[in-house]
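[09:14] KT: can someone run the structure on this one? pasting the chain below
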Amino acid sequence: MGCSSEDADLYGGGGGGGCVAITAGGELRVSGTILANGGNGADSNNSDIPAGAGGSGGGILLSAQRLTVTGTVSAKGGDAGRLKEIFPSDSQAGAGGGGRIFLHVPEGRAEELVLTGNFNVSGGTNAASYARKGGAGQIVLQTDQMVVPASG
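[09:31] RB: done, structure tokens below
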């Protein structure tokens, strides 16, 4: 399940990851994959046309009385496009930043939370050695009275 963006076509930037929100009044079990990843920027074969930038990761909200995640939940940023024919390890484009994963259980139900799956809010990569990858997103765990942010 997810709404990950497709990679860019012909010199474009990757699309943003969109949003997934799942709320359950009882138990929510995630054993598969939920994606809101940014799309990759398009590569360029022409030095006059820059490569495309990576799209940013989207947002994912999972809220339930009992929450179990044993699968994969990802809102990562898209990779920057490359200048393929001219400088295959170079890019003038930026990589997309990671998105946000927000996990919510009611106050006093922390024992109903099982998080043994894989979570990814990393930024996209950039082939250029001098360029930085996209910044990490954020994973947030919230009960009704407390917010605990965790860096990606």
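[09:33] KT: thanks! The CA atoms of residues 38 and 141 lie 22 Å apart.
[09:34] RB: yep, looked fine to me
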